[in-house]
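Hello K.,

You asked for the raw outputs rather than the summary table, so here they are, unedited. I folded two proteins back to back in the same session to keep the settings identical. This is the first:
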Amino acid sequence: MYTHIAFLLLVVVLLHASAAIAAAAALDNSTDLAFLLAFKAASTTTSGGGAAAAPDRIIAANWTTDVPFCTWIGVRCSRQYPPRVVSLNLSSFSLQGTISPHLSNLSFLSSLDLSNNSLSGTIPDALGRLPRLATLFLHWNLLSGPIPPSIFNNRSSLVSIDLSHNNLSGSLPTQVMLPRIEEVVIQSNLLTGHIPAGLARCSTLQLIYLDRNKLTGSIPSSFGNLSELVELVLGENQFAGAIPASIGNLTKLQHLYLGFNHLKGEIPKEMGNLVNLQKLHLHKNGIVGSIPISLWNASKMIVLEVSTNNLTGPLPATLGKSMPFLRRLLMAENALSGGLDFIASLANCRVLNYLEVTTNQFEGVLPDAYGNLSMNLQYFHVSHNNISGRIPAGLGNLSNLISLKLGVNELRGTIPRTLWRLKKLQLMHLGSNRLTGSISSDIGLMTNLAEISFGDNEFSGQIPDSLGNISRLQQLDLAENKLSSSIPLSLWSLTGLFRLYLHQNRFEGLLPPQMAKLKAIGYIDLRSNRLSGNISSALGELQTIQYLDLSNNSFLGQIPQQLGRLINVGYLNLSHNFLSGVIPKSFSNLSYVYSLDLSFNMLEGEIPEGKVFLNVSIIFLMGNRALCGAPQLKFPPCPENMITTSTSIAKLRLLKYVLLSVVSVLVFLACFSLFVKFFMRKKAKASSKEEPLCLNYHRRIPYFELARATDNFNEDNLLGRGSIGKVYKGSLDDGLLVAVKVLNLEVKGASRSFDVECRTLGQVRHKNLVKIISTCSNLEFKALVLEFMPNLSLDKWLYSQNQCLTLLQRINIMLDVSLGLDYLHHQHPHVIVHCDLKPSNILLDENMVAHISDFGIAKLMLIENKSTTSTNNIGTVGYMAPEYGSTGRVTTRGDVYSFGILLLELVTGKKPVDAMFTGKLSLRQWVRNAYPTAVMEIVDNNILRTELTNLQQRSDGVDILLRCLSSIIEVGLHCSKNLPNERLLMRDVVPRLQEIKNGVLVN
């Protein structure tokens, strides 16, 4: 009987226990839900990019109690009952706010990935107490504060941790107890202090990334005990001391990055034991001695970079045979010496694409056999050595070369003709040698060149006129040669040119007004030539110029008042000429000048007042005959009648020029009327003939070639479609890639749009306008053949999940568009208004240079009033100026309005037709409400994520970014004002954007 009673009691106890366990499990399951909701509440979200289904909106709609939390996006649960949260993956979901410490209560959580968001605040210490956590990914956020010690003292299951690309500060936790850890990635933060010794006791470590911090001390020799280590990346810190010899014990090591530190001593010979090493980066240190012979045993080496050290001695002649898989060999800025035989051995490295041995002490000649190097070679840099002989013709075989640097050597002879075959070359530096001969006109075939540096040689003859074909040229240095004749007019058509150095040659003639086309120019040095005549007032149009030197020539006449418009100039030298008259009063406006030299001319009259003329250290006026005033410069006071006399002389000169101008105009009008009659007759005859093929802009393309090029206009080649047609990608018979815009002639207005675009594109030439190659037109088919833009439209880049523009890229695009509009509005002989500026009409070439496209509704303005009335729909909603809808008046100010909206869109990542803009709230009003106190709240998250990471090493990084973004917004708001007359002109926008870009580059 007692046995039965005991059995019944046991059953009752077990039933109660089961009920308690079930109740506890149910409670745990419900707490998972509560903790997830707490996380959602803390990590407030933002709608980014204006996409129809932005990730943050998906979470807001999906994470509700209407459905089981195990079905929520990013949540994965266990298969047990009741299910528990084991994984939370919300990478790239536009989250912001903070990380809720309640996540630490998800006791079954094994994987947490919150990377690539905008989360801020600190990392909760409680995360380190998750007993099952194996992977913790918080990289690419805005997290700050120290790393919680608990994360490095998780004694159980943590395998991989990635906290990189945040703003974490303080030192690494000193207590490290991670028995299963394999990957520690904390690069690109603000960490200080030493590497904790305990990290070397984590014997399972395979990957350590601590680069781009502010860590100090030495590299622990105990790292040699990490026998499983495959990648050790400690670069861009402040480590000192020697490279520990124990590193040679890491026989599995494939990647060692110690660059950008303060390491001293020699490369330990034990590193020759690293037989699996593929990437070795030791650059930017203070390493001395020769490279140990044992290191050349690393036969799997792909990248060897030891530049900017104090290495000495020769390189082995068999280097290329020892390391046949080399892709990049960078040894610049050392004291390496000996011959160049090692370069010939690199012919064995069939994938070599980068060779950099500049600034060493190598000597010998470059044999023609160098043409046998890898056809993948893109960078061949051997400048700043003691190399003699001739430039080998075989270099012309390296058809994929992008950059060729042979400068500052002892090379002689002429440039071999084979070099002009390098059509992909972008940088060609041959300066500071002893090269002779003339510069071949074939240089004009190298249309990808961005930099030409031939200065400090003995070249003679003329600058070839074909140089004007290199439309992408940004720097031209032909200084200190024996070049003569006049500067070709084609040179002034290089609208993208930024630096022009022609000093110390024998150039003669005048400086033409066409110089004003150099809209991007920053530096011009023409000193010590034989140039003469008056200084053109067109120089005053160069709003971006910072350095201008015309000294030691034979210029005469007065200094143009327009030079006072060079608002960005810092160095201006007009000395040692024959300039006369008075110093322009407009020079008082040159607020950025740090050196103004007008000495040794024939200037007279009163020295103007103003800040420039008060600073004795920056003004040079000696050697002029009759200057007065400015007692601080020790010139005598001016006579009382000086101003009157000068005014009378000026009036006489003005009268002479007016009479001459009137006579010239009358003669011109007579000649012009005769020319117009002749031209109209010729045009009438020509128009009566029917052209069955494409119009001959640059080439003639039959319809059948266009059909072949586009695979009979196959939809697979469709780039886009618009209201009046489609655009196809095509490859012409000669391999040229083009965009073929085929019009749907059934759409009303299509033919007229075709005629407008043909007429407009046919008469414009600018690097930031899409170029027409040809047209094809008959009664049943009309198409424009345009240059192909491989990076498609700005719209695609702004609203793609897979692509992201940096702040500098956005500024460059804005500057490109402004230059294109400035040309249409102010530089073209006839004012042209685009009328439909928007991101989809801005195309990007392979170098991300912006080109304005789609001129189908462009307007040709009358020069007198620069306006017209349109009866058509002009522009696109959101970008269209208010006056278009109310008055129909089309002016250049309408384009300025569209440009202003575009600037605001680039900063915010919001389309002007975004769903959030309803009622009276527009994109402009939204930005205006936030400016200037809440700018960072409206900025595109992609900008914040990338730029704050780039600036994290600076304490004033946020302030720098804020100033830049505020400057862009200010221009955008000014351009998009409601009243047209209150908007800026594009000629005033360009220098403002150039100044913003310069500020970004400096910082």
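The second followed immediately with the same parameters:
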Amino acid sequence: MQRFVISQMLLSLDRKLLRDLRALWGQAIAIALVIASGVATFVNSQNALRSLESTRAAFYERSRFAEVFAGAKRVPDSMKSRLEEIPGVAHVETRIVEGVNLDIPDLNEPALGQLISVPDTHPPLLNQLYLRRGRWLKPGADDEVLASEKFAAANELDIGDTIAAIINGRRKQLRIVGVVLSPEYVFQVKPGDIVPDPKHYGVMWMNEEALSMAFDMEGAFNDVAVELLHGANIDEVIFRMDELLDPYGGRGAFGRKDQISHMILEGDIRGLKTTGLIAPTIFLCVAAFLFNVVLTRTLALQREQIAALKAFGYTNFDIAWHYIKFVLVITLAGAVLGTVGGNLLAGFFTEMLARVYQYPEILIRVRWSIVALAISVAATAALLGASAAIWRAVRVPPAEAMRPEPPANFKPTLIEQLGLGRMLPNVARMVLRQLQRQRIKTCVSIFAVGLSVGIIVVGQFMQDAIDYVTDLQYNRVQLYDIQVNTVEPLSTDITHALASIPGVMHVEPMRSVPARVRYGPHYRRVAVQSLPTDVTLTQLMDRHRATWQPPPAGLVMSKILAEQLGAKVGDLVSIEVLEGKRPTLKLPVLALLDDIAGLNVYTSLDSMNRLLREAPRASGAYLRIDQNQQAEVYQELKEIPALAGVSVREYALQSFQDTIAQNMGTIKAINLTFAVIIALGVVYNGARIALSERSRELATLRVIGFTRHEISAILLGELGVITVLALPLGMGIGWSFAYLLSTYLANEEAFRFPFIIEKSTYGLAVSVVLTASVLSALLVRRKLDHLDLIAVLKSRE
């Protein structure tokens, strides 16, 4: 019998729970949406992160992606056995890698190709290819190639199509027989670029015998990939490989962490780990605040009910559990909605990743452990936010709870104490007194609305940074129209040959020298860029648009590279040249360049030629052309055998904008949606609670003669003051988050976001939050207009 009575009592509480949810459905939905946003961003970001990591790990393992790489000029095949004898080396794969110019049907401008050899008799053991469609190369075929998938898709090339390549000065037709993916080119980026340009840069694989004959490499190789034994010392392996390959023009061995595709992938994963935790934290903090505010007022209105429940025998635990279930029901509803939303976001992110990365499959699936963690964190945050209100309510003695709360203690505001109150209308003074009376609630409300402003600022900051980088890199640094690179360093007379092409208006030589830059025990493998001291077609410009000229004797170095080496201005660094006679140069660091991409070292062209004790030589040139003769210039450049690559600034810019703009558009839309949810959740809940708290007061004012407009101004004036005060705070919050994010991303080697926030970003954030606040005000104003004066005045306070 006792059990039956207890169960009936608990069922009565459950019915009360449903009535409370029905009465507070608007506020409950607002809180659930905020929780859903936090859960959705957490589920999406963590699933995307885990999927990227697991997809990459599986592709690397299945393809046996090498751990050490090295290039050289020409190494006899007999050295392979010497490399295999290095302690820690498990397997060595030698190959031929050469850059070529491509002439692609229906593409006017030149394209750059990378030809990589594969054994004629068997597939490569390392860096194995994944055949997407078509077939493998026939043994002995000298005109068949396998093409990377992004390159084939961008140029609408299919199995059986042919493209022309300038191979060792000779034009040769290559037929595509298969489309493949490679672990080396998951992120397929052209040397010198910062985003993929698959239309103008393709990677192709060709039979080793055919490629060796085409480049006079019979019995030799110029590239090597190495797999290590478990626990091997990679630094020792790199040192031994350099010793063996240096006599053959070795260009310096390097580990997987410096392989360009892997390095960019690793940077993206690190960025996702950081940014994927910021938004969920903000949403769950706001949800905790909303639970605290809603339950504080709900429990205050239900003081007599709580006292009655205690009189009927309900314990403090029973009552606390009842309100905890109120919190958990809303949290669970938000979590379910967030899980569904997280899966939808995952679909968008999968499309974004597929546009950039080349994996056999990117499968972002629901990991229930992540969902469970997200729900647990959301429930914990909600309970922490509600716990104080619940604890205060249940510990009040029944006799005290039966009495109404004591009336509010209103005091003159600071403005009134200064004697300025007479300048304010009565309505304004009432608003300010109410805000002053509830200082903590007011401050937290201001902070919560400010967070929604901050989210928009942070999301838009990325777009501002990209716009700034686009303008800096392609309109201020790269002032040329075309950059060409030669197969080998040539006499600077190449500039005269290029200048003689009809349509070429101006030519400036440059030289890129592969080298190890060493300071103390630290070194990095980079290309030293040598430019004329009077260069005009490219600029040495930092992120603040300050410029330098190539120094006549010394180096200008990327700031991030100097930090990695531990060098500073005035220090002598060693430049171990990895071509020609391979001298070691000692040069002072004259300036640090706070640039936005890559690890760069600059000096003057005359200085480099003098230090290398060579006649004036160049490995490339910058061209400015007449746009009316663009097609003729492109055709002439395609036919020059000495050129190893041609890069057109216009198409590099277009690729950058296409890649970034598509992804940023999706991210911006998501950020705006979440910011609106926060603003609506905070402002709407605040206004509804204020209405429930002050309904008797407002009804009294209506009865004694105040108009609807005046009582609306009293109620919504509080909302307006909170929103206006939140705007500058939110700008500061957004500025701080953006600064921290840019500081973190400033350490990336491939690409670094400058800290740039445009005025339009603040304007957008303010506009969105004000719009959300106005919508919330209109919803509450409707309820205020339908206020039942008689019912409200009959209610007992």
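The CA atoms of residues 40 and 339 lie 6 Å apart.

Happy to rerun anything if the numbers look odd on your end.

Regards,
P.
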